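User: quick one, sequence for these tokens?
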């Protein structure tokens, strides 16, 4: 029996539609600029998005906490359409500007999303609800990437990008149907922000978010280029979509399983898959390359719902938005570093750095795995309070 609330279903549907449009376009961003002989501009646009995402997360925590998740979801979703439309101008300056705006907006969107998901869920079903949400969001992204790849092959980039810019506006309208779940409590938000971002336990735990999104930075950066060079543009969508097909198929299962079995075992399994997957990408043989993509996609299917649920596990009602913002900020740092590395180093060096980053991340997180989740929440609460 599915234990998903009405609010989580609406939230999930809205994100399915928004990221049908946006993630479809994002997956082809580096190839779009590459075909326009502006190879590094694609990386710089993505770097600006995630850099401003990182910088704006502390502000997002304050606004979401004060004004509520619903208002912030409505406000931020518009900028996804604005960014896609700016690509049609082929003005590098305008695209960089809208990239920065989108980065700020996305920090509001994702802090609000994670906060709303937890507040709309029963504590016993954080993993199940997170898996349900990730299934829908990944489904929208997969359909967008598949469809856009075929449309680009037939019509080039301009017409498909214009069509896909309309989808975030539909998600924007759906957010109005959400119930307002604001906490409505007054307290010193700046002080709580400062203490949350200096919590040693929270910072150590954030290594999980870093490793997941460092790999995501590779997925949207160097891996599409590598696929295009080896197999052609039409295979970018097909092979990249494994990162969405497996989360669609397995996110709900793994999310619910983490509710039953606990988060610790799932964290260890995800790190194991991550390391083997990165090692497999070293091979120039198609079989090993496909295995690497599948294992990294499987890691994503486990970690995405797990991290959404873990925020609820380790947070209290008052510090939920602030911990959410911290973890999302660390995620953004992982993506920015991956994009910077992808744009500057040869492929073999990139994967060596990635393996090293995954090992360091696991070493940082490992001491916390001896504690139960409730103990981690108590440690964080003590450090914050």
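Assistant:
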């Amino acid at each position: 029996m599915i234990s998903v609330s009405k609010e989580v279903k609406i939230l999930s549907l809205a994100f399915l539609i928004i990221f049908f449009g946006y993630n479809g376009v994002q997956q082809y961003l580096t190839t779009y600029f590459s075909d326009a002989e502006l190879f590094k501009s694609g990386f710089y646009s993505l770097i600006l998005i995630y850099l401003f995402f990182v910088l704006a997360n502390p502000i997002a925590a304050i606004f979401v906490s004060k004004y509520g998740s619903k208002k912030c979801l409505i406000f931020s979703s518009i900028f996804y359409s604005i960014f896609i439309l700016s690509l049609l101008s082929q003005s590098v300056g305008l695209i960089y500007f809208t990239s920065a705006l989108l980065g700020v907006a996305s920090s509001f969107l994702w802090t609000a999303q994670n906060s709303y998901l937890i507040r709309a869920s029963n504590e016993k079903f954080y993993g199940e609800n997170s898996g349900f949400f990730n299934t829908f969001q990944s489904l929208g992204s997969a359909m967008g990437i598949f469809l856009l790849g075929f449309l680009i092959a037939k019509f080039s980039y301009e017409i498909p990008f214009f069509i896909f810019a309309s989808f975030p506006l539909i998600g924007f309208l759906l957010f109005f149907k959400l119930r307002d779940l604001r906490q409505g409590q007054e307290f010193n938000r700046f002080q709580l922000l400062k203490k949350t971002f200096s919590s040693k336990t929270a910072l150590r735990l954030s290594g999980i978010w870093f490793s997941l999104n460092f790999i995501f930075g590779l997925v949207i950066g160097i891996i599409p280029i590598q696929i295009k060079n080896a197999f052609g543009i039409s295979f970018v969508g097909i092979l990249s979509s494994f990162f969405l097909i497996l989360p669609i198929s397995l996110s709900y299962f793994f999310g619910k399983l983490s509710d039953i079995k606990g988060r610790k075992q799932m964290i260890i399994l995800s790190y194991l898959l991550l390391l083997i997957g990165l090692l497999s990408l070293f091979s120039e043989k198609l079989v090993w390359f496909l295995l690497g993509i599948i294992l990294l996609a499987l890691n994503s299917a486990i970690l995405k719902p797990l991290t959404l649920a873990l925020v609820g596990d380790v947070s209290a009602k008052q510090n939920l938005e602030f911990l959410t913002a911290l973890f999302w900020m660390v995620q953004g740092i992982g993506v920015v570093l991956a994009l910077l590395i992808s744009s500057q180093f040869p492929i073999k060096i990139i994967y060596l750095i990635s393996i090293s980053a995954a090992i360091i991340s696991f070493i940082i997180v490992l001491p916390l795995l001896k504690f139960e989740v409730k103990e981690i929440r108590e440690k964080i609460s003590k450090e914050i309070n």
